[in-house]
TrEMBL record:
A molecular-function term among this protein's GO annotations: succinate-CoA ligase (ADP-forming) activity
Species: Listeria riparia FSL S10-1204
Protein name: Membrane protein FdrA
Gene Ontology process terms (BP): tricarboxylic acid cycle
Residue ranges of domain ATP-citrate synthase/succinyl-CoA ligase C-terminal in the record: 342-493
PANTHER family listed in its UniProt record: PROTEIN FDRA, SUCCINYL-COA LIGASE SUBUNIT ALPHA
Stretches assigned to the CoA-binding domain: 189-284
One CC-aspect GO term: succinate-CoA ligase complex (ADP-forming)
InterPro entries reported in the protein's UniProt record: CoA-bd, SUCC_ACL_C, Succinyl-CoA_synth-like
Pfam families from the UniProt entry: CoA_binding, Ligase_CoA
Length: 590
């Protein structure tokens, strides 16, 4: 039976509510529970999971809605006690935090008149209007929020470009601004390599391998995954390349993208051919056959990092040949399939690309229901896809969904290899390896009882400086029976060779390319160069955990204690957004 509890004017950010949901779900007698703010979008999520109730309709966007499925109504008092205790602990934690807090933009800008970036991590319905206000205040915008319409993304990026500002996102999960982490980011040593990426875990994989190879990063500018679409046109990518080319501390530029629109890819390459610094590109899904003078084309994220470090150290760029040490595992004749369950979308895409290459697959590469590849018994899933995260924690935080997939795959007598990633850094689980290890031990033992061996192969995306212990995470996985490799590329190739397949690498010589695309003429603004040259001063609109990471690494932050305006009414918000924009334009004229 469903029971609804509404806590009025008890706004909490989504991470806090996800952690609270996990805590309440452990109470004996709770079949299911969902705790979210009472926004229209969240009510739809309640409905899609069968938890929408009549009482829920009364909740406003500032009300916390708790819907519990239980056969024992007597536990509701215990649930309320646990909720209140959890919220009280959060309040105590916030009161001990020395970060300055504002409830309005005017107050936030008064607390730090020199702020130059807004980090926005609120529900996507409201993100565009806050990004608009940030741009009006002269701030660059880092938009972690997803579910922002692409038309709004285009409008915001055009506005930013005209103002000489950068919009990173929407759905931008990773960034490093002069050593300060934005959102889900690893702690990477400083250096002379600048990264621009339409890919979150792509940036993380490349930057962490750079770190472990002895290199370092100046800035890593996330653009959001749609930036290189026909609609958006690569606005942020192009502006960021122009800025990194002028940024004094950057000697090498790395460009990372999931499959882009061809016309936009060609425009990016045309610009890279005109800049003064050597560059490395990876467009996932493409298998380059050549390099160009001062412009190198990689196939895997690991190769991208290796070339970047060679260039950064002034070394000759040499071919990257991945040597695989194939473990001794005996499969039954039926065991032929690889199953990949990833928390990182780009790592999942790379795995699917390599599997499709080795197996010469003509079909099966898809983007539906979280699947990146599904064919002939092989499958690769991005568990960070919206279908798995609506109203639930991201798999970098919560292992529950991945554990369920691992168990299902291990029960399939045709599964030979299970691939997985553990992504470290700010925002990720403090001990994801420890969370996954018991289930991994269980499935390996269960397969052995059934007369089968199963290979679980993983990689840890991280550095020795990350909040989690990189070596300890590796050791925990190895103790559970995981074959741990140094990169996702190496892990996938190991799995492929175990089932009798191999990825062939191209030898790439330097070629001259006559481009038919005219390079855009771009000038990096003073505001862009200033952002990349100094530690940022941030107005953090949303998740408080992001503010903590900024202050820990020397950045300055004001916490914007955001609440939905106009009671969450979308039409009234648009009116307020128009009035705010009008006010800003009037002020500019004066």
């Amino acid at each position: 039976m469903l029971h609804t509890i509404i806590k009025e004017n008890a706004y909490q950010d989504s991470v806090v509510l996800m952690l609270l949901t996990n805590k309440i779900s452990t109470i004996a007698g709770v079949n299911r529970v969902s705790i979210m703010m009472g926004t229209p979008a969240n009510k739809d999520i309640f409905g899609s999971s069968g938890l929408r109730t009549e009482e829920l309709e009364k909740a406003s966007a500032n009300d916390m809605a708790i819907v519990v499925d239980t056969d024992d109504a007597s536990i509701l008092d215990e649930i309320l006690t646990e909720v209140d205790a959890f919220l009280a602990s959060q309040a105590t934690k916030e009161s001990s935090n020395e970060t300055e807090t504002a409830r309005t933009w005017d107050k936030a800008m008064k607390l730090d008149p020199d702020a130059n970036m807004a980090l926005i991590s609120i529900p996507g319905t409201y993100a565009a209007s806050e990004a608009d206000r940030a741009l009006d205040e002269g701030l660059h915008a880092f938009i972690f929020s997803d579910n922002v319409p692409i038309e709004e993304e285009l409008r915001l990026k055009q506005k930013a470009h005209e103002k000489g500002l950068l919009v990173m996102g929407p759905d931008c999960g990773t960034g490093i601004v002069n050593g300060v982490p934005m959102a889900f980011t690893n702690v990477v040593k400083p250096g002379n390599i600048g990264i621009v990426g339409a890919s979150g875990t792509g940036i993380q994989e490349v930057s962490t391998i750079i770190d472990r190879l002895g290199g370092g990063v100046t800035n890593a500018i996330g653009t959001g995954g749609r930036d290189l679409s026909e609609t958006v046109g690569g606005i942020t990518m192009l502006d960021a390349i122009a800025a990194l080319d002028k940024q004094a501390d950057t000697d090498v530029i790395v460009v990372i993208s999931k499959p882009p629109a061809k016309a936009i890819r060609d425009k990016v390459l045309a610009l890279l051919r005109t800049i003064s610094k050597p560059a490395v590109t990876i467009f996932l899904g493409e298998k380059p056959t050549y390099h160009e003078e001062n412009l190198y084309h990689a196939y895997t994220l690991e190769e991208t990092a290796r070339i970047a470090v060679q260039l950064a150290k002034g070394q000759e760029v040499t071919a990257t040949q991945t040597t695989i040490d194939v473990p001794n595992i005996s499969f039954t004749p039926e065991q032929k399939h690889l199953k990949g369950y990833y928390s990182g979308g780009t790592l999942a895409s790379e795995a699917a690309m390599l599997i499709a290459d080795a197996l010469a697959l003509k079909e099966g590469l898809i983007k539906q229901d979280g699947y990146i590849l599904k064919t002939e018994g092989h499958e690769v899933i991005d568990l960070g896809d919206d279908i798995y995260t609506q109203g639930k924690p991201h798999p970098m935080i919560d292992p529950e969904k991945r554990i369920a997939f691992i168990r299902d795959a291990a029960n399939d007598p045709e599964t030979a290899v299970i691939l997985l990633d553990v992504v470290l850094g700010y925002g990720s689980h403090e001990d994801m390896a420890g969370q996954l290890a018991p289930a991994i031990k269980e499935v390996i033992a269960k397969a052995k009882e059934a007369g089968r061996e199963i290979a679980v192969i993983g990689t840890v995306c991280g550095t020795l400086q990350d909040p989690q212990d990189y070596n300890e995470q590796r050791q925990t996985l190895e103790a559970a029976g995981v074959i741990v490799k140094d990169s996702n590329n190496e892990a996938v190739r190991t799995g492929l060779e175990l089932v009798g397949h191999k990825v062939e690498d191209n030898d790439k010589a330097i070629q001259k390319v006559d481009s038919e695309t005219t390079a855009p003429q771009l000038n990096a603004s003073d505001a862009m160069l200033d952002l990349l040259a100094k530690q940022p001063r941030v107005i953090n609109v949303g998740l408080k955990s992001f503010a903590e990471a900024i202050t820990e690494t020397g950045g300055r932050v004001v916490q914007f204690d955001w609440r939905p305006v106009a009671g969450g009414d979308a039409k009234l918000q648009k009116v307020l957004q128009f009035l705010n924009s009008y006010r800003a334009e009037t002020a500019d004229v004066k």
